[in-house]
């Protein structure tokens, strides 16, 4: 393998790098799943539909009425809720002004869904998606949920928001060298 003009290992685009391709495919699958989740729920809120039927397959999405019902039920009718600030925010700010909040949630889900699904500004899309996700994490915090339920959305969004393209995280090249992490973005145009 030759070196690029910048001194990085060149990747032969004709044969590809299977390790890079596999990592890329796994990352794209996770981003697409998150993006489609937000996009479809945003569309359900925009067009007020709840059920999805494809042949024998029947599933549901969360429209604006469902979101209000779930938020009210989780905060006000679940005896295990122990975070008073969440209750105050929900009962004194969000629920009394549900119409603008529901449209804001719709816009957030659509924007994040489009950004993540299409790969346009996916980091910004992850940060936008984190707003309702973090709030819901605290709503569900002590509500006896299945252990990985909330982290399934929260953790990938945090990773996507923090990991630099082609890197290991929000760190400088110097700290990567000190930690023994050698990560160089491949150059697709090599010099032989």
* Series of secondary-structure elements, N-terminal to C-terminal: HEEHHHHHH
| Shape call | globular
Low-confidence stretches: 167-192
The helix fraction, in percent, is 55-70%
* Distance between the amino and carboxyl termini: 8 Å
Mean pLDDT value: 77
Main structural class? mainly alpha
Number of helices: 7
Q: Strands of the biggest beta sheet: in what spatial order?
A: 1-2
* Strand coverage percent: under 5%
- Give a count of the beta strands, DSSP E runs of length 2 or more: 2
Main sheet makeup: 2 strands, antiparallel
Radius of gyration over all CA atoms, rounded: 21 Å
Number of domains: 1
Q: How would you portray this structure in words?
A:
The protein has 192 residues and is mainly alpha-helical. It has one domain. The protein has seven helices and two strands, in the order αββαααααα. The protein has a two-stranded antiparallel sheet. Helix 1 packs antiparallel against helix 4 and helix 4 crosses helix 5. The longest helix is centred in the first third of the chain and has 30 residues. The chain starts with 17 loop residues before the first helix and ends in a 14-residue tail after the last helix. The C terminus is likely disordered.
Provide a brief overview of the structure.
It contains seven helices and two strands.
Keywords, separated by commas or semicolons:
mainly alpha; two-stranded antiparallel ribbon; 58% helix; 4% strand; globular
What topology emerges from the helices and strands here?
Blueprint (H helix, E strand, L loop, with lengths): L17 H30 L3 E4 L2 E4 L3 H13 L7 H11 L3 H21 L3 H18 L11 H12 L10 H6 L14
Antiparallel strand pairs: 1-2
Helix pairs in contact: 1-4, 2-3, 4-5, 5-6
């Amino acid at each position: 393998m030759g070196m690029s003009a910048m001194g990085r290992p060149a990747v032969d685009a004709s044969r590809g790098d299977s390790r890079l391709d596999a990592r890329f495919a796994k990352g794209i699958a996770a981003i697409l799943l998150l993006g489609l989740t937000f996009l479809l729920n945003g569309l359900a809120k925009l067009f007020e539909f709840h059920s999805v039927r494809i042949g024998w397959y029947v599933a549901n999405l969360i429209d604006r009425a469902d979101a209000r019902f779930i938020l009210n039920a989780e905060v006000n009718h679940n005896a295990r809720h122990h975070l008073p600030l969440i209750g105050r925010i929900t009962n004194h700010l969000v629920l009394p002004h549900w119409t603008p909040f529901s449209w804001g949630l719709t816009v957030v889900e659509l924007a994040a869904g489009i950004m993540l699904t299409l790969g346009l500004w996916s980091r910004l899309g992850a940060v936008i998606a984190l707003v309702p996700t973090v709030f819901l994490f605290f709503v569900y915090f002590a509500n006896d949920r299945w252990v990985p339920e909330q982290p399934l959305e929260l953790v990938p969004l945090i990773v996507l928001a923090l990991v630099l393209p082609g890197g290991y995280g929000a760190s400088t090249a110097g700290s990567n060298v000190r930690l023994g992490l050698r990560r160089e973005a491949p150059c697709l145009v090599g010099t032989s």
